[in-house]
Amino acid sequence: MAGHKRASALRACQLGNDEGLMQKLKMTSVAPGFSDADRMKAIQQLAKALYWEWDSERREFRFHAAEMLSIWKPDLLPSGEIDTSLVAPSSQPLLRQTFEMIFSNAIPDPITFEARADDSASTVTYMLRVDPFQDEERSIVRGIIKDVSDNTVLAERARSAEQKLLHAVDVLHDGFVIYDSDDRLVVCNQRYRDLYPKSAHAMIPGATFSDVIRAGLDAGEYTHAIGREEEWFKERLAKHLTSDQEIEQLLDDGRWLRIAERKTVDGMRIGLRIDITKLKQNEAELKATLARLQKSELEARRLSVVADRTKSMVTILDKDGRVEWVNPAFTEITGYTIHELAGEDPRSIMRGVNTDKSVTQAVDKDIHDGKSVSGTMLHYKKTGDPIWIEFERQAIRDTDGSVIQHMIVAHDVTEHVRNTEVLAERAESIRAILDTVVDAIVTIDSNGVILTFNPAAERMFGIRCKDALGKNVNTLMAGEHHTNHSLYIANYFAGHTKNVIGKSREFTAVKADGTIFPVELAVGEMFSGENLRFVGIIRDISERKQLERIKREFISTVSHELKTPLTSITGALGLARSGAVGSLSEQMQNIIDIAYRNSERLGTLVTDILDIEKIDAGQMSYDMQESNIDQLIADCVVSMQPYANKFGVSLKICGKTDDPVFMGDSNRITQVITNLISNGIKFSKSGQQVEVRSKSTADTLTFSVKDFGEGISQELQEQIFTRFFRVDSADDRHSGGTGLGLSICRPIVEAHRGAISVESSLGEGSTFTVRISRNADT
Known about the structure:
By secondary structure, the chain is an alpha+beta fold. It has 23 helices and 27 strands. A 5-stranded antiparallel beta sheet has the order 2-1-5-4-3, with helices on both faces. α2 crosses α3 and α9 runs antiparallel to α10. The N and C termini lie far apart (138 Å).
C-alpha cells in the first residue's frame, strides 16, 4: 500500500501543474536500483519543492521523502487550524484563508508567501499550488510548496537595475527621451524638459512626438522654423522617423542642441539632446582665429578637430572617492591619463601648495558628510602649471540611499579668474580715484536713496558717509529742488525729462549746518545687474559764482562808463569827417574815417556787452506790439544794402508770407534780422547773393537768411551761438565782428517763444532759420 502511494505521488509530481518539476525529472539521473522514494527525494531537492497530500477524512498531511528537505511544511495545531508560527506575519492571513479552502475540499488559486523552514532558518519566499486528486479510497488534495526566492531576487535585481538606470538618466547633463513603437512618449528626464521650456507642458507619457513638436512650434521655440513652420515640421518628423543621423537644432533663446536618435529592434526610439552652445561658440571663435592667422589647410583641420572635441572634464569616482574613469577632455586639459589616476584620490594629485586651505577644508568636510559640493579651486596640471577649476561633485546613490559612485563635472575657468582679478584691480583703482577726486560723487537708486557717498561729498556737505547712506538725496537740496525731486524722478521714468542725463545744470544745495550754496550737477545713469542707478557729479561753484558776479559788475560799470564819452567821440568824429569843422587834408580825412569806423565798432561792442549783461541779469526788456515781418525784412534789406554793395554782394527777398502780422518787439526782431543779413554778407564772396524769405502758419512765423558762401563745419554749428565765438577764415571781413551777435539773437528769439537753427555745408553756404510764435505776448 505504501509503495502504491509513493508511485501515485511520483506520478502526481510528474503530471502536476509545475512544469519545472517535470523538466527537472527528465534531466535528473538516478542510479539503477533506486526506489521511487529515492527518485522523489532527488526531484524535490533539485527543484526546491515539497510534494504534499491532504487527507480530508483522516485530517492529516502526508509527505514523501521529505525528511531532509529544508522547506516549510504544513502542519495542524491541536485546534485543527494550520500552524503559521514559522510564517511571516504579513503572509499569515492569506495562508490561513488558503488552507481553510483546502480543508473544505475547495481548490484555491496559487499564492506566494514568506516563511521559515525551521526556527534556525531564514525567511524565504514560497509558492503554493493545489490540485484535486481522487484515489480509490478517499478524497485527497495534493499540492506543491516551492522555494521561489531565486525568482524574487532576480526580480528585485531587475527593479534595482531599472531604478539605477532611471537615476543615472535623471542626473545626465544631457536630455534623454524614449518613444515607444507607436511614437508615444514613454519617459524623459528633467534635463530634457529644461532644454525645451516652452513645450515642456506637452511632455507627458502617452503624448506623441508630433504633439510635442507642435507645442514647441506654436510657442516659437525653434528658430529655423520661423516663417516656414509646416515645411520645417515635415522635415523634422521625417528625420525623427528615420532616426539614423545626428542633427543640430537652434532654439529661440540662442542655445544650440545636438540631437541623436536611434531606433531599437522592437521599434522604440531613444533620443539624446546635448547642449552644444559652448561648442558652437568655440567653433566660431576658432574659425575667426583661423581666418585671421591664415593657417594652412592641415592646421585648420587640426583646430577644427580640437573644436569638435571640446567638452567639460568628467570624472567618475568609486564610493570611496577613487578614480574609476576620466573623459578625453580631462586628459587633454590636465595632462593626466586614466592609467595615472585609476585608483587614486584626485585631490591628492591635483591640489598644490597654493591651493586655498580654507576652501579645501570646507570642501573636504562636505564630501565627508556626503553632501554635493561645488565651487572654484586652484589645481595643478601634470606639467605643474596652475589651472583654475570650476567643479560640481555629486554622489550617485543606490535605491537604499547608499553612495555607490561620485561624479565630478569641471570646467577650466583660468581665463575667467584672471579677468576677474584684473577687474578687481581696476575696481580698486576706480575706488581710489573716487576717494581722491575733488568733486562730490553720489550714487542713488531709482527711489532717490543714497547708495554711495565719496570723501569729497563728505567734505562738501559736512556729512559722514555712514550718516548719508540710506537717506533720500533731496536732503542735500534746498528750495524747490528739495520739494520736487521725487517728481523729477517720476517724470524721468515717464519719459518726460530724458534730456537731463549727461548734461550739467545748476541748483542750490544745503550743508549739514544749514548753509545754502550753489552747485553744478551732472547726472549719468548705469545699471547694476537689472537695477537702474543714477550717478551725480557735484561741484561747488560758490567761488565761480562770486567771480562771475564781480565780472558782471565790472563789465556793466565799464560799459556804462564808456557809453557816454564814446557817443560824444563818435559824434565829434562824424562832424569832423562831414566837413562841419572845416576842410581836411586827404591824409587827415583818412585818419578821421578810420577813427570813426573804430568808434562805431566799439560802440556796437559796448551795446552788445550791455545786452549780454541785461540777458544774464534777466533785465532784458521787450515791447510787444503788433508788427509786420515783411516790412521789417524790407527795412533791414534797404539799411544793409550799402554794406552789401561794399563787398559786391546782392540782397534779395525771395518769398513773403501771406499773413505777416505778429505780436513782438519789432526793434529786437530787427536786431536779429540785421545780424543774420550782416553775417551772410561777410561770409559771401563778391558776386554772390544773400536771400531772405518768410512764411507763416496759424501759430508760428518763420523767416530765414541764406547765403552761398564758405559754409560752417558740423562740429562748429552749435558753438557759433556761444559768446565771443567767431569762425576762422582767411577773409579779413570776418575779423570785424564781436562774436556776440548770435549769442544775443538766441535769447531774443527764445523770448518770442521761438528757436533759431542753422543748416550748413562747407563750400555750399548756410541757412539760418528763425521760428517765433505769432503771439509771443500771450
